[in-house]
Amino acid sequence: MKICQVEKTLVSTNRIKEMGHRPLLVVKEKNGARSVAVDAIGCVAGDWVIAVSGSASRAAAGSKDYPSDLTIVGIIDNWSEE
Amino acid sequence: MKICQVEKTLVSTNRIKEMGHRPLLVVKEKNGARSVAVDAIGCVAGDWVIAVSGSASRAAAGSKDYPSDLTIVGIIDNWSEE
Amino acid sequence: MKICQVEKTLVSTNRIKEMGHRPLLVVKEKNGARSVAVDAIGCVAGDWVIAVSGSASRAAAGSKDYPSDLTIVGIIDNWSEE
Amino acid sequence: MKICQVEKTLVSTNRIKEMGHRPLLVVKEKNGARSVAVDAIGCVAGDWVIAVSGSASRAAAGSKDYPSDLTIVGIIDNWSEE
Amino acid sequence: MKICQVEKTLVSTNRIKEMGHRPLLVVKEKNGARSVAVDAIGCVAGDWVIAVSGSASRAAAGSKDYPSDLTIVGIIDNWSEE
């Protein structure tokens, strides 16, 4: 799983109906790369989180049919980015 | 999901029949890497979009049998590439 | 999908039987990275092509049991690599 | 499979229930990239291990429904990182 | 599929039982990155080989339940690494 920091909410009004109204978050990896993740846990900007990719991210988003390839599955208790 | 900007339509007359006539778009990530994505939402050059990869991209393209590995699933309302 | 240029045919006499006699091609991405792709469309050295990766590449190669992770699914009509 | 060194245990109290109480470890690849892996073998900090990614990592974590994309499946007997 | 050179056998006595006794090999890509692959063809150190990744690598390793994400499926007849 990837270690990412939540940056902000992503607003996408025009999306395919299968995505529903699940919150989408912009997350940033240590190397600076930004991705969009589905939030399955309830986190806020600044949180360091664990995000699962690949086929596991669909079920983690709530349904095997959910069109996700990156889902936040946990908040890290303490993370000091050295 | 990846954050990409739509660059242009890709013309590929000679393609496998399973791809049908779905529009294919050239998208560009912030790091400059170009990929080809199936458009499931209806977007135009210049749009910043969310694209889902992996097995989720097939269903997002309309059918689990569609041969996609990258499908545009939403248009980002506002994106300022800093 | 990836944008690649076909470089040459790859000869591999000793391969697992599930691969059959499908032609294998060496393809090159813009960044110089080389991969091996199954040709599902019929292309020649020099062609710029679209190649699908991941689980979609198996069905695109003709069968869900075909052991491919990269399959050429279309030839790009015009591609000027700037 | 990836070759990684186990760095430490990751504490994530707030995680989706599907993750259960399986131990999560921070692993580091030779290039310095850190990921989080599920431990299916029982290893300790400093061990060099083999970690499987993708859909195979779910079954390796104990169940096809486990939300993992990286699971440690073996400890390397001797590894000298040259 | 990836083009890799076989470097050596990897010894991992302590592995999950699902891996069985299949030989594991350390392979090296042109960019120097090392991975571990399951050998489905019978190759020796120095061979240039084709390795399939992702879900296709499981069936190529002999069973859809085998926990592989990289399996060697062919030996390249002639490869001059320019």
UniProtKB/TrEMBL annotation, chains A, B, C, D, E:
Highest taxon, organism lineage: Bacteria
Cell compartment(s), UniProt: Carboxysome
ATP-binding listed as a keyword: no
Extent of the signal sequence: none
Protein name: Carboxysome peptide A
SUPFAM superfamilies noted in UniProt: EutN/CcmL-like (SSF159133)
Protein keywords: Bacterial microcompartment, Carboxysome
A Pfam entry, by short name: EutN_CcmL
GO cellular component, one term: carboxysome
